[in-house]
Design brief:
It is a single chain. The chain is an alpha+beta fold. The protein has a single domain (3-112, 128-291), classed as Porin, CATH 2.40.160. 15% of the residues lie in helices and 37% in strands. It is built from 4 helices and 12 strands; from the N terminus they run αββαββββαββαββββ. The protein has helices at residues 3-11, 36-48, 133-143, 199-209, and strands at residues 15-18, 21-24, 55-64, 74-83, 87-96, 99-110, 162-166, 181-188, 231-242, 252-262, 265-274, 279-291. The protein has a 12-stranded antiparallel β-sheet with strand order 1-2-4-5-6-3-9-12-11-10-8-7, covered by helices on one side. β10 and β11 (265-274) form a beta hairpin. The N and C termini lie far apart (44 Å).
Length: 294
């Protein structure tokens, strides 16, 4: 297991300070704000702790309200809205310095059989032989060593906890217009055999990873990259649905597209497929993609 993956597991292990209040930490970082996927996943872990283990989270809907400060702990207040016969609902508000920075609702369900169909998995090359995205980011960071990182690039967290391999890599330094679609193979950067039966943890890690690259899909037709100093980018909301069981330490194909951008907002959709072609999770995000004139 990589050090970064262990660090991710550590921050997903929240401190319970009251029956419905949890404290989350952010790893030491040079970033000026907390990665959205971290808050999304920590809120999920807080809610999971208040729900019986036979009920698995099947959906989470969230709004990012304020930038999180990585130097300050995050408090998660869980509201037990409803405990029904087969569904359980929770609301979680994350706050810092007495102000809400994030709000989310989650629904849990007792696993049951039923009607089933799914979209086909995209046909593409497998992850074997593809370059790890972190290698390209390392080269990019080296090329920018003597430059000041600006815009969203300054806030991008490390890819190390989750290994990613793009089928058609993006040239962030010299972007060209392309279809608002991308395919990326992902998996945790290490074995989670010891946590193989902890489905809630695997869902939380996938929720964390789902915030990578998704918003950038809406920028592809416009030849705007995260290196652009005029770009102001931020997640506005994020949703995820879980359809089937999976292991996050096994390769999953993250298929993304963006059907629309307007009014400085971009809408992006994602689907996670297992190697055997099962659609195991879906996600949608709207992000701020504001271009300043100066």
């Amino acid at each position: 297991m990589s050090e970064a993956l262990q660090q991710l597991l550590d921050i997903l292990e929240l401190e319970k300070i009251d029956e419905t209040i949890y404290r989350g930490e952010t790893p030491e970082t040079t970033n000026k704000r907390v990665f959205g996927g971290q808050v999304f996943a920590q809120a999920m872990r807080a809610a999971q702790d208040t729900v019986p283990q036979d009920r698995m989270v099947h959906s989470q809907h969230a709004y990012f309200l304020r930038p999180g400060d990585p130097s300050v702990p995050i408090l998660y207040q869980v509201d037990g809205i409803r405990d029904g016969g087969s569904f359980t609902t929770r609301r979680v508000v994350a706050s810092q310095r007495g102000k809400a920075i994030f709000s989310t609702e989650l629904s849990f369900q007792v696993v049951e059989p039923g009607l089933s169909h799914q979209a086909d998995m995209p046909d593409c090359v497998g992850p074997e032989g593809l370059e790890d995205d972190s290698i390209r980011w390392a080269a990019l960071s080296k090329a920018m060593a003597d430059k000041v990182k600006t815009g969203a690039a300054a806030h991008r967290p490390s890819l190390r906890p989750v290994e990613m391999r793009s089928v058609n890599p993006i040239d962030y330094m010299n972007p060209e217009p392309r279809a608002a679609q991308q395919l990326i193979w992902i998996k945790a950067s290490g074995s989670l055999q010891a946590q193989a039966e902890d489905g809630g943890l695997h869902r939380a890690i996938l929720a964390y990873a789902s915030d990578f690259n998704l918003m950038g899909t809406s920028l592809l037709p416009h030849a705007v990259g995260f290196m652009n100093s005029k770009l102001q980018a931020a997640s506005l909301d994020h949703c995820i649905w879980f359809h089937d069981e999976f292991r996050v330490d096994e390769w999953l194909l993250y298929s993304m597209d963006s059907p629309r951008s307007s009014h400085s907002r971009g809408l992006s959709r994602g689907s996670f497929f297992s190697r055997d072609g099962r659609l195991v999770a879906s996600t949608i995000q709207e992000g701020l993609i504001r271009l300043h004139s100066d």
